[in-house]
From TrEMBL, chains A, B:
Keyword Lipid metabolism: no
Record's protein name: Chloride channel 2c
GO cellular component, one term: plasma membrane
Location in or out of the cell: Membrane
Biased composition (Basic and acidic residues): 844-872
Topological type in the membrane: Multi-pass membrane protein
Transmembrane segments: 68-93, 114-136, 156-173, 185-204, 216-240, 252-272, 298-320, 341-360, 404-422, 429-451, 471-498, 505-525
Chief place of localization: membrane
UniProt entry keywords in alphabetical sequence: CBS domain, Chloride, Chloride channel, Ion channel, Ion transport, Membrane, Repeat, Transmembrane, Transmembrane helix, Transport
Record organism: Anabas testudineus
Length: 872, 872
């Protein structure tokens, strides 16, 4: 009875889990004891100490859940990595300044020092990354987004990549180019999590679970942002927005935990290193709290937001334009492909020449590093008010913004324009680098510009009630930074990041308003920077359903699905399999009960089918056939009883060969799929030996293709080969006559029914209904990370929807240029086969099933149903 | 060919969407023109003005996407509601204070005024809510969580509930009881969204889409928290954590937009009302920014966090205990059921007596409102340092904490203890109320206590480097508030809420650490307050997979699924349907191809089957049968040709009746499912007339049950009914003899095969595989909001998993007390039917299918397969 077992299920699940855990512990305990034994053999005083360590570790692992230990370790490691990297970058930048400062007698030498340093560092970074792991190039967020969608990207989470990314990133940032650390840090954290997971799997079993790994990667992304900016909350939110479409709230927890721990350690390290007195924000601001801004300043903040939106879209567009341009110019491309390091070197040379402080750099505060620039933007002074500001004597970095001849506004405008294209260009360099920080900086500069203008316009503030509250340009810088970075990345959590970065939340409403406006503008113009890179790199992706696209609610799966599904039936023969493999190129194929019923039973991977087919036509089976045949022939020959010496020689070698092959064939049923072929006696024949790779081109008469592979080539070889090699060669293909017989044999083999017994079938592929809306389909695809889904109607397969169709339908983009063609599916709809009403069509479908059922007992009359038409 | 249509799909989808949109517009345009026509008839000067308004509205709706208009409207309305409510509450509280202050000559009068006021308000609130909409009682967050899971709760989103909630909440909070506004506000915002959605659907079509409504509800929850605390970010995050398991990042956007707008308007209203000079935080703090806290204070913060964790768990436990106690005590229960308003009145009396300022209230700052108390806790002074603090003269609300005889520590401890049980008790009152704010207050008190202790312990601060940084107890209060409210609600976003509430983020790390520790402790001890209420109210829910439950990764669906699935086959007869309906009580039943193949075709709702069955045995068909039979009998009778007068009379009435029934039967094929029965001539016979509601009890011989309904009751009636009524009554059941014939007829009907043509079938119910892990199952269930899923193996139905099994497996809770029974599924596993290996079992399954296929052509031999055994 239904529900009979449910009450005791809890007990069972608990016991089962306990059993598994126990066995795991036992196993790990035995491992541990083996380790202990090994340690005994070790000589030295610390052996006992180690034993205790191991025991302690064992206790730790067995007692407390591994989840939080993993997260703490991850946070710790990432905080250390981040801190060490920051330390190295600071040293690099200091060294450049020191060199530049020391050579102030000669401008040329100064220039050389200023320029050579970054060129060398960037070139090294590019070269190192190229050699060790080219996957480390770039931000890493687009790849992480893809990986978290469930796609496996090879080599993206290896130790090599980790090393390349960390060292490459340190060098790239140490060069002083307008590059960021935040995007790559997401990748570094994920790498770290993946490696830590592998390392931890030595101790426990759960680290091998795939869904757990994905969860941990999601947490790692949060850690990456969190420990980069010491912004745990912003880190979690930013990583969610950037990498996920759907987010599990339970992961959120993990992210918070790890990111907080990481940010904490990161800042504690700064305190221990006496950089800071206590734990504070990274770019601490000191705006007044009692009256942070006036209500009447809000329109100015809104303007900052809207302008940032346009700026962000422009940045993404510019970035893509550069990449596409570099790719399209074949002459440049060829040249650069040869000298891979030339492009980064040239770009670096160009950028660093322009920022040379005694040169053009004096108009754009070229001598300041990114950090110093940002601190200058966020400071509490007003640069434009000459009278009052003079008193403060332009302390520290603000000094750089005062130019004797040029107003601060001009400097800011030049800074914004120059940095804009420089950042867009620099982020296309083949080094590990992010775009967040440069964009953040430009945004801050723009905000500062607006703020300074406002301060110049209203020197005594806007407030009319007597009390003078002067305008704070630093607040505008904060708003601008959040807005522009939000526009480029299409996130709102940059707002939270700036609060955590500056340690002040007093400007929350202006920041939120600006960020939302910037997002609204940017999202309607361009994809986010990461999505743009995903499209450039052609990674598998699914576009978001944007705002206000309410027409998406009206499109149904039946409008977008492909009705002409490739399928195989349960009782098909190998020839059908072969035909299906030849004509389609999908990764998975639907398995239906029969062509008439079309009841979906499951889906099979293409590779499984290929191995099935190659097994059926395998050498072992062929050889077995030949042996049988030859035994029969032998009998016939012995009856004729007049063999020539050459013939017997040949036969002897055949017999030796056959013995080996017999062994093979006796083995093959046990592990039949991916068998390594025996090393061929003749090297040339390896061409023949390779497993069947059926060409996926548009072959129509398929039988010939196979014959090409198996039969026709040996012909040519048999004439090419030297006479002395003939006998061993003929072991495989005894004679031209025999080859023909093999072809015949193959034809026979192809007509046999397929035996799916050893085939791995996914018995529950995801199914949709015709009436499922596009909106729901999108949700399901992105929720479950699907690649395709079958559309069924009462068990009957009627179509398939893959990521491609969905993408097309959502984007509504037309790749067919020129003539507007009538949508081919319209005809389907017009003819009314399925389009009318759901219940009606369902009834029709059911009728067919019904008829089929009746026809089992009755003499079957062939009704030319839809499914029959399709199966042809 | 696969992919043939994909290129032009985009075009098609676009055109299709455009067509649909256009037709929608056309429709709405015609609606609009009708409205215009109507308006023309209206007399008055503003008609033209209205036409312009309508046109303008039309333009707005057609031009800009409705999404953000909806969100802005929602934000605006909620901000207004929140502000007006706050205003009313403030007036109520002021009135109480004024009454209390005015009567300071007589303590008894003062006491009466102090007590009567809240009792009246709470009683009114309880009564009003009870009468208008009992659904408005309580927080609303548990219900919203359930609704967002996809469950339809009736009456929870109606206008009545809205009115009841808003007015009830205002009164409840105006009484000064320790109740919160935040939880109910989530509900109010959702109500507002639902009503607004209904209102907007008058203009456009998309507002009727269900998934869109759910998205809007999710955004509304964010708005609710956001405009309650003027905390947009915290609001979004809190609402996500509290209501969702999986969250779509696209909703996040909506939430941010609406919540920011709402918070903005909410604060702007305060500025316009001259309450504030500019937009600032609700409970603004003014801690020092340069050195917010010392690193060495972190252990103290951690202690606050851990203690809050225990406190939070205790609060949830206490709250549940009170509810369960009230329910279990039948004597109390009965009494309270009669006098529903007595319980709230008594509780209010008790609580307000204890807080009476001249009485016990003097030891717990009873005269302060919640808001004043919180402001006092967050202030920048140190109460315990008598020497220094004397200078400040205990300004404002801090005055209340100084008691001439008792130390401030004692006052704080008394406050915490008293408020703790008061809040736990008060939140069980049948009025609209939340627990967040009271808990937040207790947390702040606890934090303040620790902070004051620290300040007393280290009067010159901990920092050793010369500069004296005194300890800020207000910072501890902030940490405590976030930690305790986080522990009770199981959220980390309370951290963000306190930053936004206080306008300072300088304590970010202590707050984060404390909140995370509090959560870790509380989550391991108790469910969250909302989950606790969900369980008490027995709403459908799915528990979360907690931390470190890594054994969950090892449990598979095959361990928890119910193997004995109730199913119906495509070629079953009505008797089978009847049997299935009698024995099970599931909402949906699986439809399989046949009992042998067990190929899952879809699922059918129970109600559909019931209507199928009742249609088969319907009165119209029965009457038709009777007519046919009577016609036959007539012939027979006319042959006998000696009718009595009574007989002819009866026959005449039968004939009239038959005419009607003929009309009926000619109609029935067109719309057969839910047909309203004709009004019966005799009222008594409605018992017979009602649609078949098959009893779900454990009936074994099912046939009798139906006979009870159809045949046996008329027997008794025919003797009870008066003679004059007999003829019309006999129209239905002409004679006892005839009843027997009807039973015979029904038996015959039951043996007919079911015709599923007009039945609504879900052709793609969600399917899992045996090897799906519990973890993945949980993910899928919570992602898609499933109620149950079928477990299939290559198309064959082998089990079903419902929410119940999943819940049991996750909680591992044993409801069977006493003897430990062997889990019944263990035997399944031991016998090795499925337990061994996936590929092997799959192969077996396939073999069966295979055999079946062969047997179609060959003479079938019955193999007693697993499925056959189950189908019995």
């Amino acid at each position: 009875m239904y529900g009979r077992y449910t009450q005791e299920l809890g007990v069972y699940a608990k016991e089962e889990a306990a059993r598994l855990r126990e066995s795991g512990q036992r196993r790990s305990a035995s491992d541990r004891s083996r380790t202990l034994d090994l340690l005994e053999y070790e000589k030295g005083r610390c052996a006992k100490c180690r034993i205790y360590t191991v025991r302690c570790q064992k206790f730790l692992i067995s007692r407390v859940g591994e989840d939080w230990i993993f997260l703490i370790l991850l946070g710790l490691v990432m905080a250390l990595v981040s801190w060490v990297m920051d330390f190295c970058i600071a040293i690099c930048l200091q060294a450049q300044k020191w060199m530049y400062g020391g050579l102030d007698s000669n401008v040329l030498l100064q220039y050389l020092a200023w320029v050579t340093y970054p060129v060398v560092l960037i070139t090294f970074s590019a070269g190192f990354t190229q050699i060790l792991a080219p996957q480390a190039v770039g931000s890493g967020i687009p790849e992480m987004k893809t990986i978290l969608r469930g796609v496996v990207l090879k080599e993206y989470l290896t130790f090599k990549t980790f090393v390349a990314k960390v060292i490459g990133l340190t060098c790239a940032l140490g060069s002083g180019m307008p590059l960021g650390k935040e995007g790559p840090f997401v990748h570094v954290a994920s790498l770290c999590a993946a490696l830590l997971s592998k390392f931890m799997s030595l101790f426990g079993g759960i680290y091998e679970n795939e869904s757990r790994n994905i969860e941990m990667l999601a947490a790692a992304c949060a850690v990456g942002v969190g420990c980069c900016f010491a912004a745990p909350i912003g880190g979690v939110l930013f990583s969610i927005e950037v990498t996920s479409t759907f987010f599990a709230v339970r992961n959120y927890w993990r992210g918070f935990f790890a990111a907080t721990f990481s940010a904490f350690i990161f800042r504690v390290l700064a305190v221990w290193n006496r950089d800071e007195e206590t734990i504070t924000a990274l770019f601490k601001t000191n705006f007044r709290l009692d009256f942070p801004f006036d209500l009447q300043e809000l329109p100015a903040f809104a303007v900052v937001g809207i302008a940032s939106g346009f700026g962000g879209a422009l940045f993404v567009y510019l970035n893509r334009l550069i990449v596409v341009f570099m790719r399209k110019q074949k002459a440049i491309n060829k040249f650069l492909m040869k000298k891979r390091l030339l492009f980064p070197a040239l770009v670096t040379l160009c950028i660093s020449t322009l920022t040379f402080p005694p040169g053009f750099g004096q108009f754009m505060a070229g001598q300041l590093t990114q950090k110093e620039t940002l601190q200058a933007f966020f400071d509490n002074l007003t640069w434009s008010k000459q009278g009052l500001a003079e008193e403060f004597d332009y302390m520290g970095h603000s000094q750089a913004w005062r130019h004797p001849q040029v107003s601060v506004f001009v400097v800011l405008v030049i800074f914004i324009i120059m940095k804009f294209w420089m950042s867009a260009l620099a982020t296309t360099l083949p080094v590990p680098c992010g775009a967040f920080m440069p964009v953040f900086l430009i945004g801050a500069a723009f905000g500062r510009l607006v703020g300074e203008s406002m301060a110049a316009w209203f020197p005594d503030g806007i407030h009319s009630d007597g009390t003078i509250y002067p305008i704070v340009p630093g607040g505008y810088a904060v708003v601008g930074a959040a807005a522009l970075s939000g526009a480029v990345t299409h996130t709102v959590s940059t707002a939270v990041i700036v609060f955590e970065l500056t340690g002040q939340i007093s400007h929350i409403l202006p920041v939120m308003i600006a960020v939302i406006l910037a997002n609204a503008v940017a999202q309607s113009l361009q994809p986010s920077l990461y999505d743009s890179i995903i499209r450039i790199k052609k990674l598998p992706y699914l576009p978001e359903l944007g705002w206000g696209h309410h027409e998406k609610y009206n499109i149904r799966v039946e409008d977008i699905m492909v009705r002409d599904v490739r399928y195989i039936t349960l009782n098909c023969c190998y020839r059908d399999l072969h035909n299906v493999l030849l004509t389609g190129h999908l990764k998975t194929l639907a398995l239906v009960e029969s062509a008439e019923s079309m009841i979906l039973l499951g889906s099979i991977e293409r590779s499984q089918l290929q191995s099935l087919l190659s097994q059926q036509l395998s050498r072992t089976r062929r050889l077995e056939y030949i042996r049988e045949r030859s035994v029969a022939e032998k009998k016939r020959l012995s009856e004729v009883s007049n063999p020539s010496s050459e013939d017997s020689n040949m036969r002897a070698s055949q017999e030796v060969r056959f013995q080996i092959s017999t062994e093979e064939s006796s083995l093959s049923p046990a592990r039949p799929v991916s068998q390594k072929p025996l090393k061929p006696a003749l090297k040339r024949s390896s061409v023949v030996e390779r497993p069947i790779e059926i060409p996926t081109g548009p072959h129509d008469n398929s039988g010939i293709a196979l014959k090409n592979l198996f039969c026709l080539r040996p012909f040519s070889f048999s004439f090419v080969g030297k006479p002395s090699m003939m006998p061993s060669f003929l072991t495989y293909f005894p004679s031209p006559l025999c080859v023909l017989q093999i072809a015949e044999w193959e034809e026979k083999q192809l007509d046999e029914q397929v035996n799916f017994n050893n085939c791995k079938i996914d018995p529950a592929p995801f199914q949709l209904v015709e009436r499922t809306s596009l909106h729901k389909t999108h949700t399901i695809f992105s929720l479950l990370g699907l690649d395709h889904a079958y559309v069924t109607s009462i068990g009957r397969l009627i179509g398939v929807v893959s990521l491609k169709e969905l993408r097309k339908a959502i984007e509504g983009s037309v790749t067919v240029k020129g003539v507007k063609v009538r949508p081919p599916l319209a005809s389907f709809r017009d003819s009314g086969t399925t389009g009318t009403s759901s219940s009606e069509s369902e009834a029709t479908e059911l009728h067919k099933l019904w008829d089929r059922h009746r026809s089992i007992s009755l003499p079957r009359e062939h009704v030319p149903s839809e499914s029959d038409e399709k199966s042809q």
